[in-house]
Amino acid sequence: MYPAVRKLFFTDCRCAGDPSKTYEELFAKLDTNKDGKVDVAELRAGLTAMGIKTGKGAAQKIISSGDKDKDDGLDFNEFTKYLKDHEKKLRLTFKSLDKNKDGKIDFTEIRQSLADLGLDVSKEDAKRILQSIDVDGTMSVDWNEWREHFLFNPATSLQEIIRYWKHSTVLDIGDSLTIPDEFTEEEKTTGMWWKQLMAGAMAGAVSRTGTAPLDRMKVFMQVHSSKSNKISLVGGFKQMLKEGGVTSLWRGNGINVLKIAPETAIKFMAYEQYKKLLASEPGKIQTHERFMAGSMAGATAQTAIYPMEVMKTRLTLRKTGQYSGMFDCAKKILKKEGVKAFYKGYVPNILGIIPYAGIDLAVYESLKNFWLSKYAKDTANPGVLVLLGCGTISSTCGQLASYPLALIRTRMQAQASLEGSEQLPMGGMVKKILEKEGFFGLYRGILPNFMKVIPAVSISYVVYENMRSGLGLQK
User: Fold this and answer.
1) In whole angstroms, what is the distance from residue 126 CA to residue 130 CA?
2) Which of helix, strand or coil describes residue 138?
């Protein structure tokens, strides 16, 4: 940033003098067409001209959050109010990060703050994050540097910055085996966590609905495809359309969407309890403890909603007229097969959580650290494409590891509804598949499963960001 700008806006003397005069000078610099308001284009161009680095979309977010009269620009009063409010939040955040109250933040304090959020970063990563804010190269950030870096970036706290790197439930690929979302103490006490969960649930619902035909094809191929009955992608869709029309491609989607809310809520509540039980120090959780807590929370949630998983498989595979709806499906399963039928495939499903969540988390952390070490020169914010790429690759690797268990689960859930099908336990089914179809028989239906990952991740991300904005979470 140019020294003139630093002198104008970021020195301590500003606080002692009249801040409104400084705001006037800055507003005059940004209002290039002198119409009494600063719009997105003027803000973006003005900040760039002054050497102030902002994140992608920052100018738009500043205008949107400060524009009270919705005229697509900030007048002087709106501009002043935004800066005052924003600076107040920045001051509170700075104080919360300055653990030893010496007026500076060093990399150990950044690392400690991330550890409090359940994010274990290396010393090198913490130093890189610090360097992206540190202007004078002292390896510590004072209040002026902190304000300079974030005043024209909408992120108001380290929690908001690190939200970019939180591997959360935002990226919904239709499989509920991910580690639950992390929430800060502030988010929990202010009630923002439930809005985040609501945004995530809505993103999942839209994403699953958008990719439901591919999900149905995956289940169809998992159960019906074999060496003697090869089903291609095109052939499978033709069969489905012939048997039940276009709407049949969405069979099972209703219950797949319905189970998001109870599963998310149970998983979140269980995760919070398991973290308290497993944390070696109160309020701090290591990566391996987080993984264990997440896996146990996933197992708890799956146990509670597993009957819905069985019904989802049965409804997805149903023939026209077989069930009139969810309740009819539940009634017929209960009458014909008893309560135990609602937990068929439970063991491989629970076993699948560990390889999926473990590999997903490990790959994501590795990709994150690689990006930070190679490219985090000016900022710790990776941008949307990097995040989507990391999430997609890590989810895909997790699925590759757990897919055979998912296939066994689906076949066990479906076998009672198939005429003449032998009722086999997990071990017997694995043995039968390996004998008749070989190792790759355990990966039937993986093509449509992979095909849905990118659209599912993209849809869920876009919907989540829009929901965050609509619920007032986007600062």
Assistant:
1) 6
2) coil
**Are 435 and 227 spatial neighbours (Cβ–Cβ below 8 Å)?**
no
Torsion over CA: 251, 255, 261, 267 (sign)? negative
Contact 461, 170 (CB under 8 A): yes
Taking residue 220's Cβ as centre, other Cβ atoms within 10 Å add up to: 22
In terms of Cβ atoms closer than 10 Å to its own Cβ (0-12, 13-18, 19+), residue 259 is buried
Q: Determine contact, residues 284/115, Cβ cutoff 8 Å.
A: yes
CA distances from 64 to 153, 280, 458 (A): 13, 43, 24
And the tokens for 140?
């510590």
Can you say whether the dihedral through the CA atoms of 9, 12, 14, 15 is positive or negative?
positive
State CA 72 to chain mean position distance. 30
The tens digit of pLDDT for each residue in 20-79 reads 567 787 888 888 888 888 888 888 887 777 666 666 667 777 888 778 888 888 888 888
> To which residue do tokens 């940004």 refer?
30
Q: How confident is the model at residue 416, as a pLDDT? A: 76
Strand partners, 74: 38
Output the DSSP codes for 169-215. Answer: TTS--S---SPPPP--HHHHHHTHHHHHHHHHHHHHHHHHHHTHHHH
End-to-end CA distance of the chain: 24
